[in-house]
Amino acid sequence: MTISAELVKELRQKTGSGVLACREALKECGGDLEKAAILLRERGLATAAKRADRETRNGVLDLYNHGDGRVGVMVEVNCETDFVARTEVFRNLAHEVALQIAANSPRWIRSEDVPEAVIEEERQKARKWAREGGKPGNVIDQIVEGRLGKFFDDNCLLRQAYIRDDTQTIEELLKETIVSTGENITIRRYERWTVGEELE
Domain spans of the chain? Predict the structure, then answer.
C-alpha cells in the first residue's frame, strides 16, 4: 500500500511523531489515520518511562492574564525538539498549564520541590489536629500522612486536579501529551502575579 506524503504529514502534525513512525503506523493500519494515531499513542505509552531521562532544551513560554489583567502567569514548558515545540498539541498543553496556575495558585511544581521544613510544619499541624480531635494513637500516623497528601494535592502543580477535568491530574495530562508527541516534556518553571500582592 502506498501512503501519501500528505497523510504522513497530517498524522505527524496530529501526534508529533517522526516521519518513519507515522509511515509505518499508517501502513500497519491500512492508511486509517485514526487507527494509526491510536497505535502511535499505545507505542508511546510503552516508551514514556524511557523518555523521562531525555534532555528537554526546546519549548515555549506561555503568557496568560486573567480577570482583566488582575492575575498574570508566565510558564516555561520544555520538550526535546523544536518541531514538537511548534505543534498545536504541545502549545495547548503549555496554555492549559498556565490556566491551571492562574486558577489554582500552586506553590511548587512537584512534591519533591517542597522544602523539608514546610513538610515537617505540615506534619506537626496535622498531628496536633488529630490529637485535639481525640483520635486514637494508632491512627494518628495515617491521619498525618493523609493530610500531608492532601497538602501536596492542593499545593503541587503536577498533583492538582485539572481544572477542565477533575478526574485527571496535571501530571496525567502531561503524560498524555508525552505519549501523543513521543517526546519527553517537562514543566520547568513558572511565575504567578496578582495585582496588589505583597512582594517577598
Answer: 5-51, 58-110+156-194, 115-154
